[in-house]
Automatic annotation (TrEMBL):
It comes from Prauserella sediminis. This is SnoaL-like domain-containing protein. Gene3D superfamilies: 3.10.450.50. InterPro entries: NTF2-like_dom_sf (IPR032710), SnoaL-like (IPR037401). Pfam families: SnoaL_4. It comes from the Bacteria. Residues 24-139 form the SnoaL-like domain. Transmembrane segments: none annotated.
Amino acid sequence: MPADPRAWASHPLDAVAATAVAGEVLSRYCWAIDDGAYDELHELFLPDARADYGAFRCRGDELADVMAGLHRHLRTTQHLLGSVHAAAEEVGGVRVRSHVRATLVGRREGAGSARVEVAASYRDLLCRAERGWRIAERTVDGRWIAGDRTILPWFGRAWRSAGAAGTSSTRGT
């Protein structure tokens, strides 16, 4: 890597560095959602980022408010990230594919909290910005969903297909 920090903008990343960058940015996203720190999303997405979660689309500047609205009514969430594969592009960006498994727990009282589990894939484009790496594009591809979907106010708008054993495929988490 170049000794002069100004040279970083034009220096391509190798696969290991690209994967490390991707893991750090995407982990910060998962923690921001799970900690309810939605304002931190402004630091993770470019102001003009495009995000397609399947059930909804939004831009970087509105993403924090959208995520807060979707998750604030839940008791807790846990987003587990894995299978991060990143490849640096010639133009300085990093294309990333990863899996996420999210457990979302509702606030229902009594025996057995309402919860839903969602498995999805993220396809992201990361770009270097003045204050570090940011998500410029995000597409979420649903794999499966199981549990009490009524705790997800947006679920009725999500695309889904018939699945086995009462589960359905959907996009978004």
